[in-house]
Amino acid sequence: MLRQFSLGTLGITVGGILTIMGFVAYAADYATLNLVGFFYGIPLLLGGFALKANELKPVPFTEPPTPSVLALREQQATNTQKEIRRDITQYSYGQDAHLDKALSFLGLSPTDEERPLITGFRETEINGAYALILEFDSPMIPIDIWEQKLDKMTKFFGPGVEVKVTQTAEDELELTLISTCK
């Protein structure tokens, strides 16, 4: 729950309030409130700015899941699918992109400039199975390289997951993780 909102925004808000309170207390000659504002407000404000500068926002749904898909997720989703979904739907700090380490391990991110970026995701049902579909903007890594990595991706995201790659536009593709745990 802690990562469902921006810690940077929280730090900036609380730090800003305490800092302003410290300046007002200084002007009104309230020494105790002045110290609270300066000793707690300014560090919180600076910490909030630092977090905000290094913040990775959650990936948006491109299509909200239906109640039947939510029930299917509860029944069939693998631990890997749950972990990926949890990772991409929360604020993150200290990462360059969502799933950056996984993409590097799979050989799909040789450099930061070439790394595919997740632009959205959706959950659906495919032949009675729960599927998590990750939508990527991949201008530097063509579909044929993704297809060459299918076996490695199946082993990486498995067991219990079938992996498919589909090109949807010139530089866009979808990575589909289908649960085989029916």
From TrEMBL:
Assigned keywords, A-Z: Membrane, Transmembrane, Transmembrane helix
Protein name (Swiss-Prot/TrEMBL): DUF2854 domain-containing protein
One Pfam family per UniProt: DUF2854
TM annotation in the entry: 7-27, 33-51
Matches recorded under InterPro entries: DUF2854
